[in-house]
């Protein structure tokens, strides 16, 4: 049953009302007043019988006579209010006694919600009963909502735990498999290196070089998967060491000099003179970010230039917020694809993968590394051709 149907059933169902009086004619009078209202009227002629009814059914309201032989109305009310299951049921006392003030005080002290003296107005009684019945239905609805909410919370918790377990298992699997694959892959690359140092025919040399290049490409993918699994499992750590920023950038860009010469690309970098030469930080991870961004710029740029700008954005004591910009004159990025660039295994569109290759892990890993280094990363389209990737990291002055 859906929630809407359950609420509708609560609102339309007949509610139980308990009428307690030792005089049968009084019970008939109450029944005649309330019978046309669609209530399920349950009659009891004593306090003990009323308690038996309360053990079996759930009542919206109780109309209770004060003066009864044996257990009177006040004693019955005290017992009702002492039980957790029945203490919230509204009680309306009805009496024919002339000791109205005294009885009213006692009635309210034992937990009654209203007090009426015979002869009472049927219209007033019906209106009070209707009000308590509506309250009862609202409470039932709230109770159902609470139960549904608790059920949904439990289901969400179970789903969350299952998702976390699956993510952990996936990360552990990727880490293990990456390690297991990387070891024989290093052997393949090493054997290809040794093979290239021997006397080979031209065809054999071409085959060996293809094996070597393919092995290195596969090793890069394996390393990316291993890094991603470490980040997702929270096991990626940074190692701070002194380094020279100019050397870091120069050595990184040297790796792309051959590809740039083939495309006649200018690869230029500029470092803000305000930045100290000697810094403290994880130079390996900083170089990895630059390799990803500059590598993408070279891959997607057929002509023009690639610029790497480094500037000091802010200084706080011994810490430096350094901003890096990698700007190219390449194919650019459509606005609709920018938001998903930094998601794992995502590229701007399928044609990019077919034409240029890649797994789409580089930018996701770069984003995680930047955030580990207390920075941010973003991308924007240039006014002219190409794209600019901008990221910041927190570095420190090295003493």
From TrEMBL:
PROSITE patterns assigned to the protein according to its UniProt record, in alphabetical order: HIS_KIN, RESPONSE_REGULATORY
Catalysed reactions, semicolon-separated: ATP + protein L-histidine = ADP + protein N-phospho-L-histidine
Enzyme class: transferase
SUPFAM superfamilies: ATPase domain of HSP90 chaperone/DNA topoisomerase II/histidine kinase (SSF55874), CheY-like (SSF52172)
Coiled-coil segments on the chain, per record: 135-169
4-aspartylphosphate found at: 65
Response regulatory domain segment(s): 16-133
GO molecular function, one term: kinase activity
Residue ranges annotated for the Histidine kinase domain, each copy included: 176-397
Key words of the record: ATP-binding, Coiled coil, Kinase, Nucleotide-binding, Phosphoprotein, Transferase, Two-component regulatory system
Top-rank taxon, per record: Bacteria
UniProt-listed Enzyme Commission number(s): 2.7.13.3
PANTHER family, alphabetized: HYBRID SIGNAL TRANSDUCTION HISTIDINE KINASE J
Annotated protein name in UniProt: histidine kinase
